[in-house]
Design goal:
The chain is mostly beta strands. The protein has one domain (5-97). The protein is built from no helices and 8 strands. A hairpin with a 5-residue loop joins strand 2 (19-24) and strand 3. The relative contact order is 0.17.
Length: 115
């Protein structure tokens, strides 16, 4: 991560050796480490280049499910989901206003996520 501007660091609550970082970069904005941060690989292929307020979150019960709120145009955002720990990403729904913060919460009732 040397020379990169890191926007956020996220720890996988179910796998202590896994760390995600979200960086300011024109290529992949998300990187993952499975060795406690000793090395990183890009996993954001297919996501838009990052904007100043893009957001990243890990599903609280299933760490293979990741969310990314990216900037897709001036003052326009898009929510993306990965169901395989960041290897593949799909947009969810329609474009949104710019996404400044993204937090995922547990719900009492079981909910299904469809991409």
């Amino acid at each position: 991560m040397e020379g990169k501007y890191v926007h956020g660091v996220y720890f996988d609550p179910h796998k202590p050796s896994r760390v995600y970082v979200y960086v300011a970069e024109t290529g992949s904005p998300i990187y993952v480490s499975d060795d406690r941060g000793r090395s990183f690989k890009p996993i954001g292929k297919g996501l838009p280049a990052n904007g100043p307020a893009d957001s990243f979150s890990i599903h609280p019960d299933n760490p293979e499910i990741l969310f990314y709120g990216g900037e897709v145009g001036e003052r326009r955002g898009q929510l993306f989901i990965s169901l395989d720990s960041g290897n593949n990403w799909k947009p969810i729904g329609e474009e949104l206003p710019k996404i400044w913060r993204l937090r995922i919460s547990k719900v009492k009732k079981k909910a299904s996520i469809k991409a």
